[in-house]
Amino acid sequence: MSDTMQPFEADVGRVLDLVINSLYKDREIFLRELISNASDACDKLRYESLSRPELLGTDPDLEITILADAKNGLLTIADNGIGMSREELAENLGTIARSGTARFAELLTGDAKKDVDLIGRFGVGFYSVFMVADKAVVTSRRAGESSAWVWASDGRSGFAIEESPTEALKRGTAITLHLKDDAKEFLEEWTLRRIVRTHSDHVAMPIRLRLIKADQEGDEPSAPEQINEGSALWTRPKSEITDEQYKEFYHHVSHAFDEPFARVHFTAEGLLEYTGLLFVPSTRPFDLYDPRRAHGVKLYVKRVFITSSMENLLPRYLRFVSGVIDSQDLPLNVSRETLQQGSVVPKIRKAIVRRILDELKNKAKAEDKEAQDSYLAFWGNFGAVLKEGLYEDQENRERLLELARFRSTHSTDGWVSLDEYVARMKPGQEAIYVIAGESQAALRNSPQLEEARAKGVEVLLLDDQVDPFWLEQVTSHGGKPVKSLAKGDVDLSAVEKDTNEPEKAEEQAADQGDLGRLIAKLKVALGDQVSDVRESKRLRQSAVCLVAGDDAMDMRLERFLKSHNQLDSLTKRVLELNPRHDLVRRLATLAKDDNPDFNDLAELLLDQARIVEGETLPDPAAFGRRMSTFVARGLAG
Q1: Most exposed of 122, 132, 226, 457 (fewest Cβ within 10 Å)?
Q2: DSSP letter, residue 224
Q3: Which of 302, 305, 253 is CA-nearest to residue 279?
Q4: How far apart (Å, rounded) are the C-alpha atoms in residues 269 and 604?
């Protein structure tokens, strides 16, 4: 080619090497990917032609053609859709080239089995052709443009682009594969028919097959024959659609390789008429937390594709959902911006969010163990994202709370729903107790849990980054207040102890007079470093802990906001003392006299509480000096 060969980026090269050498046992998946891309290209042209009918020219019937040339070992998949410009060929060809390849490549382990599963979550789109082809040649001409371009690559050394004779292609894209010797089966008529019927029968435009047989005279292909159903799957009655057809349509719209966890297929009638076919994945997409990720629901109007970029069709916390919404009420020739601002899309959004959440609720309520395990696996993958809705979506908050599952102090590896939690609350327990932190291990060792653990009170352990945000919004559930053990005053004295637990001798508490004096002196010594110093009702083994005030923000949320420059400083904490701890009792005695070491001991006490809470010490060097001084005195006897 005349243009200089352009190398693939290193990350793309790594992924391609994996695709070529270790990917699918079932290599036929490449044809599904190419047909899916061709279908999208036709959909896009159909939409653009609504405002620019001249784009269709003298070729208004959109279709996909498969040409199997057994004489020359070539397989061509062509469409007369929107086509690509030179820039689009270079920059946007294939899922890998545009969808965060660097992040994906970071996740590759070198373990072929694990990486194959990972690449299935990532999706490879066009580049799956290199499983079966030594070379791929893509000829494309964008609708309305005068130039056609040819992109060629062997999938290893890079790619080259040059201008093509205009008459080579009137419009659209033709992908010609030079098949490997062990992939010639994909030139056989029955193989191609079977693959299309299995994976692409639902594609709404005709897929036509043409053949050049190895033993025929001349190179004239056979007459085109349609080999797919050619009707939009979502318009068919549910009773006529098999689970396998649903699954393949999910693969088509999501470009994913897993089994769908749930599907919602419905027709809404009344003031608004529309059909929906939506899918929830079972495997977490690799880019689920990428801020640029959007839902995968395509909007159609009367079976005409409108857009896959209708952001407000679903809320952000359902960004893993894919599928189709086909409206009978929206005007065909309206702009995407007008649709975004109109009243119809918000009404559709409201209804489909409820349908999705209701279907997830049905899954969550299933009673057999396999179904329960399946739902818990789904929650493990997507629960943190759904919990974003607890913060954002007040209207559906109760629905989301019914779906939510949590780790707790009563289970090391299981999940509990809020209803299950409430059902097993102890006599005298009036609130749902929670605690938010950085990890399950840190939370289980948190000093704020000590009294609750001693009383057998279950506590929900929240370690997702989103948890502190929704805790500010969710104040109750099922008539029970939701209370953080790291915030405000906590009194569990009304909770009955388990009668079958042996009584443990408790340390004698510090004298109340001495304790009051200690608290007063600590307030003076610590000054405005704390908002208050008080006796704790939540500590059993630890000497001290920090908690947020009743009206203060959750401590973890504050730390998060400060780390992202959303807060200038943290609010002052409450320092709580355990009056039964030996250290506190000794300090209470020490507070009777004007001990010159008292202020340093007060600072050490506060720094200890900060360390346990995971907060940064304001002066680590001073902490080290104080600690060394008192440890040395202790060793000296």
Answers
A1: 226
A2: P
A3: 253
A4: 68
DSSP bridge partners of 65: 78, 208
Tell me, what's the pLDDT at 281? 95
- The answer to the question of residue 384 being in a domain is no
Between the alpha carbon of residue 439 and those of residues 381, 464, 465, the distances in Å are 17, 8, 10
Domain tally, the chain: 4
For the record, the structure tokens of 533 come out as 């110093």
Beta bridge pairs of residue 67:
76, 210
**Helix residue ranges, H only, 410-493:** 418-423, 440-444, 450-454, 467-471
How far is the C-alpha of 249 from the C-alpha of 236, rounded, in Å?
Answer: 13
Q: End of a domain among 229, 247, 264?
A: 229
**Comparing C-alpha atoms, which of 465, 399, 413, 466 is closest to residue 441?**
413
Residues of the chain with pLDDT under 70: 1-26, 92-125, 166, 168, 332-342, 498-508, 510, 637
* Dihedral class, residue 539 (left if φ above 0, else alpha if ψ from -120 to 50, else beta): beta
3-state secondary structure string across 494-522: CCCCCCCCCCCCCCCCCCHHHHHHHHHHH
pLDDT digits (tens, 9 = 90+) for 137-196: 999 999 999 889 998 888 777 778 888 876 768 899 999 999 999 999 999 999 999 999
Total residues belonging to the chain: 637
pLDDT at 99: 41
Give the residue ranges of DSSP H helices in 111-229.
112-122, 189-199
Please state, in angstroms and rounded to a whole number, the distance separating the CA atoms of residues 584 and 581.
5
Dist. CA 221–CA 43, nearest whole Å: 27
23/415 Cα distance (integer angstroms): 34
Domain of 541 in residue numbering reads as 508-552+563-637
The conformation of residue 556, written as its DSSP 8-state character, comes to H
Helices (DSSP H) in 174-220: which residue ranges?
189-199
pTM of the full structure: 0.77
Residue for token pair 């400060």: 562
Distance CA 497, CA 501 (A): 8
Consecutive H or E run containing 391: helix 388-392
* Alpha-carbon span 79 to 526, nearest angstrom: 75
Same domain, 88 and 187: yes
The predicted-structure confidence for 511-537, as pLDDT tens digits, reads as follows 788 899 999 999 999 999 999 999 999
What are 132's two structure tokens? 């079966």
**191/179 Cα distance (integer angstroms):** 15
How far apart, in whole angstroms, are the C-alpha atoms of residue 357 and residue 359? 5
Token pair listed for 45: 């042209």
**Residue 582, φ and ψ in degrees, nearest 5:** -60, -40
Instruction: Read off the CATH number of the domain in which 279 is found.
Output: 3.30.230.80
- The C-alpha atoms of residue 467 and residue 482 are separated, in whole angstroms, by 13
C-alpha of 427 from chain center: 39
> Whose CA is closest to 573, among 545, 594, 596?
545
3-state SS assignment for residue 4: coil
Residue 323 in domain: yes
- Give domain status of residue 75, yes or no: yes
Q: Give first-to-last CA distance, the chain, whole Å.
A: 86
Confidence (pLDDT) at 361: 96
* pLDDT value at residue 634: 81
pLDDT of residue 114: 55
How is residue 548 annotated by DSSP? B
Maximum Cα interatomic distance, the chain, rounded to a whole number of Å: 112
pLDDT of residue 589: 86
